[in-house]
Design goal:
CATH topology of the largest domain in chain B: Rna Polymerase Sigma Factor, Chain: A
Strand content of chain A: 25-35%
Shape of chain A: flat
Order of helices and strands of chain A: HHHHEEHEEEEEEEE
CATH class of the largest domain in chain B: Mainly Alpha
Oligomer: heterodimer
CATH superfamily of the largest domain in chain B: RNA polymerase sigma factor, region 2, helix turn helix motif
Number of domains of chain A: 2
Radius of gyration of chain A: 20 Å
Number of domains of chain B: 2
Helix content of chain A: 10-25%
Number of strands of chain B: 0
Distance between the termini of chain A: 26 Å
Distance between the termini of chain B: 33 Å
Largest sheet of chain A: 6 strands, antiparallel
Strand content of chain B: under 5%
Largest sheet of chain B: none
Shape of chain B: globular
Structural class of chain B: mainly alpha
Number of strands of chain A: 10
Strand order of the largest sheet of chain A: 1-2-8-5-4-3
Chain lengths: 236, 194
């Protein structure tokens, strides 16, 4: 299967792979520029095939869609979401405190581990393991509140991690909360009591993005403010 | 003065460029979003209808797709392909997800192995859509029977390629390559100036 993985481009462009195979194929794409070009072209052909089936929707659907969009916040623009050179990521992992025990939360298909570690603890944390993985890629995005968030992904581990230490203090009685975003649904993934601590999580399912909001201490059931940043980990 | 006027008919409203519209939507322009819906709504609904079949569910899928487009437009990157391809890719994936969530539908579908031949005659006055419709139909005819069936079962019925292999009683690698070869042939044909 791995020997001829690139011949899956047709099935991939037709959305005919299982989620596992699609993930495997996407990791293959990362190292194969020719395959990416081919997928782009085949997707275009598939899109034209779909477009040829155009059929006017019922007229009343338009008002429903426009009203729904009216109630839906847009993602903040993605800034500078380009992979950086390996080794360029900030090394801040030494400063964490032993606050909470590692907590595991399952949300929207993403298992999230919030790590805390003593200064001199030699065992790499889950976050370090992601950022220091052989195939790690990182990207830094600016957040709407003037901070920076660094996202790391490791396809081989099928995990991602966020470095939140570049975020400003959320303010008295406020915390940052991480959300798994799927369509219009937002599910809490973790509440970050300490911005110096990062979070590591399994790569979320396809079409699930990760967003951060500022919430009252303790976190919220649903976001009470617009995300300060939202990223698709697959774009890192 | 014959019947050959020196003027060409100008449409009251030039079709807006979908790429430009998505760029405006990215800035929160709801008028552009409405225009985008007018431009591509029938393509999104059409593919949803073909894949999920049920009109009410196709409407739900269409709404999900447009909300995705609205939310994600700020992150849309033209370098990765055109806005129309982006939107249709979202539409197809959403439609396929809806079908796979309801596997039972397929079991009830007597025509599962035979993609139905209902073509919607590009009912609106969209010249572009009509041209594409004709081109796609002509180009699909250049595919071999097995390529065509593999591509259509996957794209319009939402089957995974192992399911297609089972349905057509062919080995997995055969179906995998037929899907790729079929799409390549479609791509090459569509790119050939007509």
């Amino acid at each position: 299967m791995t020997a001829d993985v690139h011949t899956l481009s047709g099935a991939y462009a037709l959305d005919a792979l299982s989620p596992e195979e699609a993930a495997e194929f996407r990791s293959h794409l990362e190292g194969c520029a020719a395959c990416r070009d081919e997928v782009r072209e085949l997707r275009r052909a598939a899109a034209l095939m779909g477009a040829a089936e155009a059929e006017p929707p019922p007229p009343e659907l338009k008002a429903r869609v426009l009203a729904a969009a009216d109630r839906t916040p847009q993602q903040p623009p993605r800034l500078d979401l380009r992979p950086r050179e390996r080794g360029a990521q900030p090394r801040r992992w030494r400063t964490w405190v032993a606050a909470a025990a590692a907590a595991v939360v399952v949300a929207g298909g993403a298992a999230v581990t919030v790590d805390a570690l003593r200064d001199d603890e030699p065992v790499p944390t889950a976050v370090e393991q992601v950022f220091e993985a052989e195939d790690a890629r990182t990207a830094t995005v600016e957040t709407a509140n003037g901070g920076r968030l660094t996202v790391g992904v490791s396809p081989s581990r099928n995990e991602m991690a966020v470095d939140t230490s570049g975020l400003p203090d959320p303010g008295e009685g406020r915390v940052y909360q991480i959300w798994a975003v799927h369509g219009t649904e937002m599910v809490s993934a973790a509440v970050l009591d300490d911005v110096e601590a990062g979070a590591a999580m399994g790569m979320p399912e396809e079409d699930t993005e990760v967003a951060l909001t500022v919430e009252p201490a303790g976190g919220s059931e649903q976001p009470t403010s617009a995300p300060i940043v939202q990223v698709d980990p697959r774009d890192v | 003065m014959g019947s050959e006027p020196g003027l060409r008919l100008v449409h009251a409203r030039e079709p807006a460029d979908v790429d430009v519209l998505v760029g405006q939507v990215a800035l929160g322009d709801s008028a552009a979003f409405e225009q985008l819906y007018d431009e591509v709504g029938s393509m999104v609904y059409g593919v949803a209808r073909r894949v999920v079949r049920d009109p009410a569910r196709a409407e739900d899928v269409t709404q999900e797709v447009f909300l995705d487009v609205w939310r994600k437009a700020p992150g849309f990157d033209l370098e990765r392909g055109s806005a129309k391809t982006w939107i249709m890719t979202i539409a197809h994936r959403r439609a396929v997800d809806a079908v796979r969530r309801n596997e039972a539908q397929k079991k009830y579908d007597e025509h599962a192995g035979v993609p139905d031949e209902v073509h919607h005659d590009a009912a609106d006055d969209r010249l572009i859509a009509a041209e594409e419709h004709g081109a796609v139909r002509d180009c699909l005819e250049t595919l071999t029977a097995l390529q065509l069936e593999s591509v259509r079962l996957a794209y319009f019925n939402g089957y995974t390629y192992p399911e297609v292999a089972t349905l057509l009683d062919k080995p997995l690698p055969t179906i995998k390559t037929r899907m790729r070869d079929g799409l390549i042939r479609l791509r090459d044909c569509l790119e050939t100036p007509r």
